[in-house]
TrEMBL record:
Listed GO MF terms: arylformamidase activity
Region forming the signal peptide: 1-22
Keyword Signal tagged: yes
Principal cellular location given in the protein's record: secreted
Record's protein name: Cyclase
PANTHER family from the UniProt entry: CYCLASE-LIKE PROTEIN 2, KYNURENINE FORMAMIDASE-LIKE ISOFORM X1
Places the protein is found: Secreted, Extracellular space, Extracellular matrix
Protein family according to the UniProt entry: Belongs to the Cyclase 1 superfamily.
Length: 254
């Protein structure tokens, strides 16, 4: 009997011991960039006081105010905000550079949602140049491709994360815009800084793109850490009467 008791005791000592460990609650990620098990990419920059704005050294600054505060006795929290229609990730309407289009009501409400949603190509632009006709030729974008997002040196330099506006950003030159219009089927152009036209050639590329309301410009895209290739893009501006542009939420879906 004693031998049996010793064997049982030995078995208890040698058996695995299971410890009950309390799991730490998983920290919620409120600033996600990727969703749907890696299939959905948020390519919209977060609007924040330190993001760059056109020709400003000071960035956006305060843009949102809490008007009603539960902390101060209100029954709810309610905010107001004030932004340029070309803040952060945004879309240009034809009236942005054409007075006749603005007067005719071609604002963001007139933009074709079919163009703003559908198959898209993300391409890497050579890092040593603005987007010229020569660069466009080198990209070999096939006919039939209607939406192209151009990732440039701006993304490498993280210009959209810097408060001070940087006029050395990369974008389209006049000949590059003209080549795109004449030799491709592109209807949506996406770029990774605040303008699709280079600072040294600011007006003419916009006029070429927006003439006859043929191309929609999406500017200030967040294209970090995304593999070049084919996706579906979904980009929606706010529905505002009289607006020559609008902040937008844009995503890519693999």
């Amino acid at each position: 009997m004693r031998a049996l008791q010793l064997l049982l005791l030995l078995g208890m000592l040698l058996s695995p011991v299971t410890l009950s460990v309390a799991r730490k609650p998983r920290k919620e990620n409120r600033d996600r960039e990727v969703y749907g098990n890696g299939k959905i990419f948020d390519i919209t920059h977060e609007i924040n006081p330190n993001m760059p704005t056109w020709e400003s050294k000071d960035g956006l600054g305060q843009f949102i105010w809490l008007v009603d505060s539960m902390k101060n006795g209100s029954k709810l929290n309610s905010s107001q905000f004030k932004l340029s229609t070309h803040t952060g990730t945004h879309i240009d309407a034809p009236g942005h550079f054409y007075e006749e289009y603005y007067e005719a009501g071609y604002n963001v409400n007139s933009l074709d949602l079919d163009v703003l949603n559908g198959p898209a190509l993300l391409v890497d632009v050579p890092r040593d140049s603005n987007i010229t006709a020569e660069v466009m030729k080198s990209l070999n974008i096939s006919r039939g491709v209607r939406r192209v997002l151009f990732r440039t040196l701006n993304t490498d330099r993280k210009l959209m994360f810097k408060k001070e506006f940087d006029s050395s950003y990369v974008a389209f030159m006049e000949d590059g815009a003209k080549w795109l219009v004449e030799n491709t089927d592109i209807k949506l152009v996406g770029v990774d800084y605040l303008s699709s036209a280079a600072y040294v050639n600011l007006i003419s590329p916009h006029l070429i793109f927006l003439k006859k309301r043929r191309i929609i410009l999406v500017e200030g895209l967040k294209l970090d850490n995304i593999i070049p290739g084919h996706y579906n893009v979904h980009c929606l501006p706010l529905r505002m009467i009289g607006a020559d542009g609008s902040p937008a939420r844009c995503i890519l879906v693999k």
